[in-house]
Amino acid sequence: MSPITSLSRRHFLASIGASALTVPSLTDALGQPLSSQTGQDKKLGIALVGLGSYSKNQLAPALQQTQHCRLAGIVTGTPAKATEWTQKYNIPAKNVYDYKTFDRIIDNPDIDVVYVVLPNSMHAEYVIRAAQAGKHVICEKPMAITEKECQAMIDAARKANKQLAVGYRLHYEPFTQEVMRLGQQKVFGPVKFVEASDAFRIGDPSQWRMKKSMAGGGALMDVGIYAIQGARYVTGEEPVSVTAQFSPKTEPEKFKDVEETIFWQFRFPSGAVSTSTSSYTAGVERLYASCEKGWFELAPAFGYGPLKGRTSKGPIEMPVVNHQAAHMDGVCKDLLAGKTLPNHITGEEGKRDVRLLQAIYQAAETGRTIKLA
Ligand code: NAD
């Protein structure tokens, strides 16, 4: 993981408060023109692909608050949603696509960035098609179901000279950035032990999240990935080995296809260890780090906020932001400035996590310690 620079309230507010008009370049990192920059508002146009819960309840409302990007288009297979969204968000008909007409987005100068918000198994196809259409891409987490898919997505973006980001919104969230700093800069001494868990009780058993072919797995793929990220970003290290265990199912009929609860443990090069739980049957949301000279924690640690934190010295006080707006603005600000996106939110980072997700399943299935280094 890339080192986190010290992040005070002042620096953070300064960075997100910068005017959208202070655009230093009219080309992207690879020297290609960015279409929306010719408009008056200097905001990148984002098209959301898949208008489900996350697009509807988080991303579209957040895009009403962003300074460096705007909701410019939609891709949906449901005509009624197209009508509702075009009216609600004033989206012109020419910026509305379905899954068949999607590739025509190549001819649309209003769209700079395609944001893929589909079930996990569909991420690879739509990211690759978006890159082939000459657009920058943001892909939701988990980036894909297999490492091979992730590589194909990275290759497609590279071939198109476009950038690929993953929806790692917490990297732009101040409480999270603070625990990254505390851990990676060893403010309480070296991190010795991390407890990182994310779990909730899932509803509708017929949804795609309960189908292995669409989700890639159960709770681990969906929210366990936050615990993986948490252990990695507070230690600032990559795990060298993993052990894991499935918990016996308490609702075997409901969880026919995917795991209900899973536990895993990472070992890190420094000797630090982490333990994690992810589940679809009960809730927990906590990131705790015990260090040589103290401790720190976030609880809640991974949801939409407000997050809450404390250390062995007292409460963590940071500004509360809209995670999705901060994330999309952070990505688009860099794209507008012609910068290469930070490592910790790119396709390479998404691929690292997918590799770990697969290793955790392998460890749980075989009962063996899986070496990662
Ligand atoms: P959702 O089920 O609410 O929405 C999925 C969308 O995909 C729907 O609009 C649906 O119509 C569409 N779709 C197209 N083809 C489909 C098919 N064959 N089967 C099912 N749906 C199909 O899901 P969601 O909660 O919006 O999640 C979408 C993605 O966003 C997932 O990858 C998820 O992990 C991610 N997500 C991320 C966060 C975050 O905090 N970063 C939060 C929620 C979801």
TrEMBL record:
Asked if Oxidoreductase is a keyword of the record, the answer is yes
Pfam families per the record? GFO_IDH_MocA, GFO_IDH_MocA_C3
Show where the Gfo/Idh/MocA-like oxidoreductase N-terminal domain sits: 45-168
Q: Which residues form the GFO/IDH/MocA-like oxidoreductase domain?
A: 177-296
Give the InterPro entries listed for this entry. Answer: Gfo/Idh/MocA-like_OxRdtase_N, Gfo/Idh/MocA_oxidrdct_glycsds, GFO_IDH_MocA-like_dom, Glc-Fru_OxRdtase_bac, NAD(P)-bd_dom_sf, TAT_signal
Q: Which UniProt keywords apply?
A: Oxidoreductase
Q: Which Gene3D superfamilies match?
A: Dihydrodipicolinate Reductase, domain 2 (3.30.360.10), NAD(P)-binding Rossmann-like Domain (3.40.50.720)
Protein name according to UniProt: Gfo/Idh/MocA family oxidoreductase
Q: Please give the Gene Ontology molecular function terms for this protein.
A: nucleotide binding; oxidoreductase activity
